[in-house]
Amino acid sequence: MTSRVAIHSVSIALLALMSAQPAMAEFAMLVASAESSSVDAKAADTSAASKEASADPAAPAAPQCVLNGVSVGFFAIGETGFCGTVHGQVMEFLGKDFATSDVGFVTQRLPSLRSAPGGLTLETAAPILFYYNKDVSYQTFGLYPGTDSMVNFLTFRETDLGTLSTFVNARLVGRLERDSYGQYFSFSQIDGSAWMGAADQAWVQLAGLRVGIQPSLFGFSRVGYAVTPGYSSILTTPAISYTQRFDHIMGSPYSASLSISAEDPSRREYADGMLARYASPRAPDIVGQTRVGMPGILIHFSGVLHQIRDESADLCCNAPIVSTHGWAASVGGEVRWKWSQLIGDLGGDFYGKVMVSAAGGQGALGYLGIPFMGLDYVASSTGVIQRSPGESLIVSYEHLWMPTLKSSLTFSWFQTYLQSAPETILPWAPPLGFETSVRGSRLQASLETMPAPGLTLGLESAYTWSDANGQYNNLPAAPVVVGFPNLVAYIKKAF
Q1: Which bin fits 357, alpha (ψ -120 to 50), beta or left (φ > 0)?
Q2: Which of 191, 245, 340, 425 is the most exposed place for a label (fewest CB within 10 A)?
Q3: What is the C-alpha separation between 338 and 352, in angstroms, rounded?
């Protein structure tokens, strides 16, 4: 396991930037139309606007490219009946990580001397986890440049069964990394493939049914208003999902959606291969989501059932493969307002918005949006599974000073707890077990300006705290506490 939030900032940043621009667009549409599903689902659900346009007897034979009442930016794709739009973003950033040390982890299975027919035998069996203060100065020396580029293509048309839409978002994310051998430019990868890492989204949707690589239903679509957000669970994954929307319930400004999905669990695994190792095959994760929206407000609830099927105990100790389940749940909300509506003339033309998201679970830490500072579970040599509980929280506020200037303040926090079932190391000694708690928090402040349409300049500062505290056989070990600042300057160009 590794712990540095800074090391993981690239992957976290990619998730944030993936959702930053759509999230703002989604909220604007939410306020305008009181719809509550995500921006990509809104893009796919164009049936009402298209049918209204096609009902006009004066309308030409070519498709009416209207999305949520807006036609600007959409074009007809030949005579296929499809409409489309292309958007993208290029971002360059330069950062400095001031960390010199961090919490490091070592996992191992200890040799165990155990009684057996005919005498004693030496086996590799008992799980153990050690933590320590790790030197990372060689990784954080100097500045790190990076880049983030993406392009997405949306198409849609009406059919007798509803709106048929496709969406592809390709992105390239990379930054300069350093290790004990030197420095290199690292790109986002999935299963060791940069091509898979670039396939951020690729799905087909008919009415409410969507198939392909898509945002997980578990995560709240708001990740905080910083470029490198805190501990939020936003992830794209292969999935099959269905969403049923209820717009303007009983003529009110309230709207809601109910969604369910079967998602690939492999992108959520927190396992080290030693104390926890997932066996194949496994059932997909079942995720449910409910969202409620009204002008200026969005509320989110989600939950997941995650299968744990361990083979680490089988590989080390010939124990049977054991299956159980982990779970996680999240709740989030976002509110937007104009300050003059709350405090009168003192509010001027300032706008504000705040979001809060909390998640918790057991045996499914990958759904909490935390760094890789824990394991979903710890398996004993006999196959007993100790599921790891955890929680995460993010609170973020953004203040719009003027149409071209805004600032934000974000605080996020997490904790997780790992333990093993006590096991015999020596026949005459008490069984050995460990208990370790890991916590982290991050405070971020950012300032952004838009000197020209589509061009954004920004600066973000952050401070991260992490600590590990444990005990072995109820004997406390010395805690490790670290903290470090980070700075990132960036330029973004949207097209």
Answers
A1: beta
A2: 191
A3: 6
What DSSP assignment string belongs to 19-73?
A: HHHHHHHHHHHHHHH---S-HHHHHH--HHHHHHHHT-TT--SS----BTTB-TT
**CA dist 124 to 127, 174, 245, 318, 341, Å?**
9, 40, 54, 11, 67
Region of poorest pLDDT, from 21-30, 83-92, 379-388: 21-30
Closest to 166 in 3D by CA, of 80, 59, 264:
80
Instruction: Compute the distance between CA of residue 461 and CA of residue 490 in angstroms, rounded to an integer.
Output: 12
How far is it, in rounded angstroms, from Cα 426 to Cα 140?
42
d(CA 261, CA 143): 41
| 71/46 Cα distance (integer angstroms) | 11
Closest CA to 368 of 302, 457, 277, 462: 302
> Any idea which of 122-136, 180-194, 450-464 has the lowest mean pLDDT?
180-194
- What is the per-residue pLDDT across 347-364, written as a single tens digit (0 to 9) for each? 889 999 999 999 999 999
Q: Print burial letters for 8-34: b (CB count within 10 Å at least 16), e (below 16).
A: bbbbbbbbbbbbbbbbeebbebbbebb
- Convert the pLDDT of each residue in 116-153 to its tens digit: 676 667 777 889 999 999 999 999 999 999 998 999 99
Average pLDDT over residues 337-343: 93
Q: Helix and strand tally (H, E) in the chain?
A: 7, 23
Residues 6+ apart with CB under 8 A from 55: none
Average pLDDT over residues 56-80: 65
At residue 385's C-alpha, the angle toward residues 384 and 387, to 5°, is 155
Q: For residue 485, with 0-12 CB atoms within 10 Å meaning exposed, 13-18 middle and 19 or more buried, which class applies?
A: middle
User: Which domains occur in the chain, in start order?
Assistant: 98-141+206-490 (2.40.160)
Q: Residue holding tokens 């580029």?
A: 149
DSSP per position, 268-331: G----SSS--B-SS-PPEEEEEEEEEETTEEEEEEEEEEEEEE-HHHHHH-PPPEEEEEEEEEE
CB–CB of 463/440 below 8 Å? no
Which is more confidently placed, 322 or 233? Answer: 322
Residue 71, phi then psi, degrees to nearest 5: -110, -15
Q: Name which of 465, 476, 484, 463 is nearest 415 in CA terms.
A: 465
The separation between CA 370 and the C-alpha centre of its own chain, rounded to angstroms, equals: 9
